[in-house]
Amino acid sequence: MSVSEKNPQPSLIATVMSLEKRVGIDEMRRLLCDRLLPVPRFRSTLQLSRRGGHWEEVKEVDLGYHFEVEGFGKKCNAEDVDRCVERVKQWPLDHRKPLWKVI
């Protein structure tokens, strides 16, 4: 079994947020943690076996891995956002961690 079959790249779901007012990175991280981490799926890893898979809750979520900053403070347009989305779609997710990232 190849690595790609053992750990297939999950589908990407991309959402672009446009905020009404400017918030700092720390405030954004806090808001997202408050909303995402209570949901078991965001605290769990996918464990694959020959019979299928199941979600297993982790003891600790690595916020440095799950929340990355890209282009903070830069003015950007729709093309910049599209380029960023295309670039980060190529980044593989670490299957030892919950399968999500906020960039």
Describe this structure in words.
The protein has helices at about 5, 25-35, 65, 80-90, and strands at about 45-50, 50-55. The protein is an alpha+beta fold and about 100 residues long. It has a two-stranded antiparallel sheet. A hairpin with a 2-residue loop joins strand 1 (about 45-50) and strand 2 (about 50-55). The longest helix is centred in the first third of the chain and has 12 residues, at about 25-35. The protein starts with a helix and ends in a 14-residue tail after the last helix. The mean pLDDT is about 80.
Helix percentage: 25-40%
* Largest β sheet strand count, sense and barrel closure: 2 strands, antiparallel
- What Rg, in angstroms, do the CA atoms define? 16 Å
How many β-strand stretches? 2
Question: What's the helix-strand series?
Answer: HHEEHH
Judged by helices, strands and strand pairing, the structural class is alpha+beta
Q: Could you tell me the mean pLDDT?
A: 81
Q: Strand content of the residues, in percent?
A: 5-15%
Gap from first CA to last CA:
31 Å
How many helices in DSSP terms? Answer: 4
The low-confidence parts are: none
